[in-house]
Fold each of these.
Amino acid sequence: AAALEALGRELFEREIRTRLQLPLVELVFAHRDRDHTVVLATSATSFQAEPVARALGIEHVLCNRLEVDEQGLLTGRVEGGVLWAEGKARAAQAFAERHGVDLADSHFYADGSEDVASMFLVGHPRPVNPGRRMRAVAARRGWPVIQVPEPEGPRGVRPRGSAMRERLLSALGRSARPRRALGALGAPGRPRARRPRRLRLRI
């Protein structure tokens, strides 16, 4: 298990970090800056999902976690059942109940047809670059669709010099200024007195 965790971190740094889509990174930070509860809900394994969550400052991760025995070896089983389609929707419901999240005031971002069930849970479903079935459901239900262009690569980013853009570039493993060291992402602020809207993010 430890070897897979190390491999997951290595692959994220080598292959994934610079492919994160800038508008979606900005969306995550926008929710965090409003003290919303941000959750990464994915059918990926923890070895794949945790590095992404750490880079984006996402505290809560719902994903497929492989069972590990007392010797630190994988057993071949998944803890608590597979998160996929209705299974992911059930996990999101359970999280909401445990944390007092109002799903009617929550957002869910996803692209695949397997996440239609989760979209029905929240008051603000937001398909992102949806596939055919998700797009058809969105059209029938009147869900706003977010269309994000394909990543342009590190040289395609044009920093504006703002503090927000510095944070975005840091998450993407880039820098707006030559030879500047990348800093850690800021932690979310303390919750406000009023109940904030909530966010579910899926990749």
Amino acid sequence: LLNGVSIKLNPRCFISAITNFEKKSSFPENLKVLFRTFTLCEPDYGILFETSLRSKGVHHAKNLARKVVACLGLLKNVLSFQQHYCFSLRKLMNVLTVFEEKRTQFLDENNEVLLCQSLRIVFKSSLVEFDDKTFEDILIDVFQASAYKSKEKKIQKTDDIIKNVCDNMNLHLNKYFVQKVCELYEILKHRPGVLLVGDSFTG
């Protein structure tokens, strides 16, 4: 009964709230008493990723999901601690989104190679310089030959455009700067908001 009106509730409806997230206030007590509280265990990333891959018609979904989750675990444990690093389920779903887009663009490409490319696009742009090689080593350990094949060849036209812009602005062009420009371009296609950290032209 709400304001004198009888409302039929659907018993399958529920409310979820993340109360231990940084900078988030706890669930109000006057609302909390109206609901039965329960705790969820940590999600199984492997099953969730495998199910998502199967729903998209990907073959060998279980093996691919196992490799991606193993890669995520190694990145979390081996890379240096940085406040902006994130290895959550949301990040894993970002990998899936990029993979789906790449799969529609390159229909004949191997799924494992496309997953490596997706991991690079999602994670590499946020890595500090000394974690870059470690990231590549982890990809090679987990995906082996596919990690080498997945290194995207930058389109020559894109390189020429970057070179022309830098020449017009009297800027010194180097390989690392071109790499960061390409990473920024890729990540802007998949993320609504991007934060650049550091001084100008430092990469």
Amino acid sequence: AVIRDLNATKALASIRGDTALLLRLLRQFATSHGEDVAKIRARLVEEDTKAGTMLVHTIKGAAGTLGLEHIAQAALAVESELRADQQLHNPDGLDDLLEKLQLAFSRFQQDLSLVIEQSKDLTDSTLEELPLDQLLAQLDELLRLSDASVNQVFWDAEGQLRSAYGDAIDQISALIDGYEYLEARNILARISKPQDQEDEAI
């Protein structure tokens, strides 16, 4: 089984050819964005074109990074229409574009399901926790390099990070999921800064 619209060469180039990691990233993309077209439609019903545009922009960026070119192109078409017609004067045209995006996503999900069924490398390994300072240094470096392998490192350590920093991790998780690595790095640096350094900054 193959994912027909996947540019695997492009996707693997950003993660050092790690096919197991790519499959994990694709699964995460499917899980995180599977309901996004419905969310976009809901925002547009509320006439919140700004929120709808942000959602489709995130899909476009994430799909492009993962080599899901058909989804990225369909998302670009929706985003371009929303930016050109913020008052939604052409709802039928926009609806057609959203339907094409949904079809592209459904096709990807079907292909991914078949790939997962046939894969023998999906068992999650039990990883020993790194000391928090080492984990933060590793994340900082990967985020600085915009290295997509940071997604897997973050997911594996999310429980440890949440124990240390609580709900502040939610924003970082959303940014990493959207491949907004530099912004995620800035927030991680801010929340992990020792209290005495924060006091000195004040």
